[in-house]
Amino acid sequence: MHDLKISRRAALTGLAATAATPAFAKAPQLGVQRPGFYRYRLGGFEVTAILDGFVQFGDLPKTFGVDQVPDDVAALATANFLPSDKSENQYTPIVLNTGSEVILFDTGNGEGGGPQRGKLRQRMIESGINPEDVDIVVITHFHGDHIGGLVEGDAPAFPNARYVTSRTEFDWWKANSDARGEDYQKTLERNVFALADQTTFLEDGQDVVSGVTLVASHGHSPGHSAFHLESEGRRLLHGADFCNHHVLSLQRPDWHVRFDMDKEAGAASRMRLLDMIATEQIPFSGYHIPFPAVGYAEKHGDGYRFTPASYQLNL
Ligand SMILES: [Zn+2]
């Protein structure tokens, strides 16, 4: 016992190290590591959340609560243990395996997305799903971080898939393809309009497949769509971009968000869907909610509070 104590002390203090007993090399630090995928269950469905990547930016009040006094936005962030001068936006497409179809919701930033983005295909393969196995690609709306990964090189990134999107979204962008400048117009032509003859267009309340229903939630974009998933009595709202910050968009759903093309309509859709999720106590996933981008909203004051899913969806 005495000897052990001495040797432990010697090891801790380095007293035992001599020229004959080289010290261990210091392990190099490896940097921040985010998980790349996470899979959970929903009745007979399986959902794989895949992190396409992230971007970091400063000054939260310039994006969330843009109609508010910036100090009030900063104070709400601080009260929730978040800095207000720095933030991280993540991108999480999901793959739904219904047992008979593999359905991908949104395609990430794609190959032009920058060093930290556009990882969807690579991580999908790491998660055990081949891009060739995707039967249907659902596009919730036509912003670049959702349509960027539809094409890889000059070929469809999911070569055996057909496509589903909202009729309202498609018609608006077709009529206003120059709304975001020339480069964006080219992306729309190449990634969306060129695939139109393989695309099914849906209206509010219509099904992609049995158990997967479009829920119109316009505002973030003219035809932005969420999707209600249901299997064996288990439900999940895949909300896409109806609320883009797990604290600010839930606690103050009426605050305007820079990314919402129609800010009043975006806030109205956010409040309507949050009320449904909280009242019916169903989980939701959100494309920009911190990975794995799934949790619950509970009523809290005039807004809601986010509780990340823990093991509920593993059971
Ligand atoms: Zn987005």
Kindly describe this structure.
The model is unreliable at 1-6 and 9-17 (pLDDT under 50). The protein is built from eight helices and 18 strands. Strand 6, helix 3 (120-126) and strand 7 form a beta-alpha-beta unit. The N and C termini lie far apart (46 Å). The longest helix is centred in the last third of the chain and has 18 residues, at 263-280. The strands form four sheets. A seven-stranded mixed beta sheet has the order 1-2-5-6-7-10-11. It has a seven-stranded mixed beta sheet with strand order 12-13-14-15-16-17-18. Strands 3-4 form a two-stranded antiparallel sheet. It has 315 residues and is of the alpha+beta class. The protein has one domain: 4-Layer Sandwich (Metallo-beta-lactamase, Chain A). It binds zinc ion.
Sum up the structure in keywords.
315 residues; Metallo-beta-lactamase, Chain A; 7-stranded mixed β-sheet; binds zinc ion
Please write out the topology:
Layout: H1 2-13, E1 37-42, E2 45-50, E3 53-58, H2 70-79, E4 86-91, E5 94-97, E6 102-105, H3 120-126, E7 136-139, H4 144-147, E8 151-152, E9 155-156, E10 162-166, H5 167-175, H6 182-191, E11 199-202, E12 207-209, E13 212-216, E14 225-231, E15 234-238, H7 248-251, H8 263-280, E16 284-285, E17 294-300, E18 303-308
Parallel strand pairs: 6-7, 7-10, 10-11, 15-16
Antiparallel strand pairs: 1-2, 2-5, 3-4, 5-6, 8-9, 12-13, 13-14, 14-15, 16-17, 17-18
The protein binds zinc ion (ZN).
